[in-house]
Amino acid sequence: MNDRKNRGIIIIVSGPSASGKGTVVSRALAKADDARLEVQLSVSMTTRGIGKGEVDGETYFYVSKEDFEKNIAENNLVEYNCYAGEYYGTPKDKLEGWLNAGSSVILEIDVNGAKQVLEKYPEAVTVYILPPSFQELEYRLRSRGRDSEEKIRYRLAKGRDEIPEAHWYDYILVNEIIEESADDLLCVIRAEQSSRRHIEYKIDEVLATYGEEQEDQQND
Ligand code: 5GP
C-alpha cells in the first residue's frame, strides 16, 4: 500500500471518434485549476497526419512509422494500438513522473489501449464518452471535414463495434453539452481522489499519530 502514497490517478478517457472526448478533456483541463485539481494530459504519439486545428506536441506527437516502431522496440510506450492503419501510443517517460509527483493524468486512448493500461495499472479509472446518437456522431465527423467518405464510414463502423465495450468502464458520460461533460469529468476525478482504493493509506497514517496528542499535552 505504501508505494501508492500520494500518487496521482490515471484517468483513461475513451469514446468513438468524434464523440467529442478531445474537447471535453481540454475543457476539463482548462477548468482544473479553478476546481483545485492537479491534472495533466498525456500527449500520445501517432503516425496519422496532422488534422485541421491540431498542434504537434499538443494534440499528438506526429512521427513516422519508422520512428514509432523504434519506440516500440525500445519499450518507450505504456501501450499502443493500430487504428485505421495508423499507430497510436502512450509515451512512458512523463507518465510515471507525474504520478509520483501526485498529479493525476488523463490518457485519451481507445478501448484496446485501455485494456493494456489496466493490466499494468489496475487501479486506473476508466471513463467512456458516449455520443447522444449515431446521427450526431456522423454529423460531427462530417463537420470537422478531416476524413474521406471511406474513413467516415470506417469510423462509424468502428464506433458500432466499440461502444458495447463501454459496459466495463467505471463511468459513462453522455456528451450532449461539452461544458457539462467537462464538469462531470472533473467531478469524477475529485470523487476518485477520495475513493478507498486511492486514499486507504491515510487510515494508517492517522492511526500512527495516536498518542501524540497526550504527549503534546504533557509537554505543555
Ligand atoms: P483520432 O485519429 O480520431 O485522433 O483518434 C483515433 C482513435 O485513436 C481514438 O479512438 C483515440 O482515442 C485513439 N487514440 C489516441 N491516442 C491513443 C493512444 O495513445 N493509444 C491508443 N491505444 N489509442 C489512442
Going by helix content, strand content and strand pairing, the class is alpha/beta
- The 3D shape can be described as elongated
- The CATH architecture would be 3-Layer(aba) Sandwich
Number of helix segments?
Answer: 10
CATH first level: which class? Alpha Beta
Q: Bound compounds, please?
A: guanosine-5'-monophosphate
Measured distance between first and last alpha carbons: 35 Å
Helix content: 40-55%
Fill in the keyword field for this structure.
220 residues; alpha/beta; Rossmann fold; five-stranded parallel beta sheet; 10 helices; binds guanosine-5'-monophosphate
How does this structure look, described?
With 220 residues, the chain is of the alpha/beta class. The protein is built from ten helices and nine strands. It has a single domain (2-42, 104-219), classed as Rossmann fold (3-Layer(aba) Sandwich). The strands form two sheets. Strands 2-7-1-8-9 form a five-stranded parallel β-sheet, with helices on both faces. It has a four-stranded mixed β-sheet with strand order 4-3-6-5. Helix 1 (21-32) packs across helix 7 (178-193).
Secondary structure layout plus pairing:
Blueprint: E1 10-14, H1 21-32, E2 39-41, E3 45-46, E4 61-62, H2 65-73, E5 77-83, E6 86-91, H3 93-100, E7 104-108, H4 111-120, E8 125-130, H5 134-143, H6 149-162, E9 171-174, H7 178-193, H8 196-199, H9 201-207, H10 212-219
Helix pairs in contact: 1-7
Bound molecules: guanosine-5'-monophosphate.
Guanosine-5'-monophosphate (5GP) is lined by residues 14, 17, 44, 48, 79, 81, 83, 88-90, 108-110, 112-113.
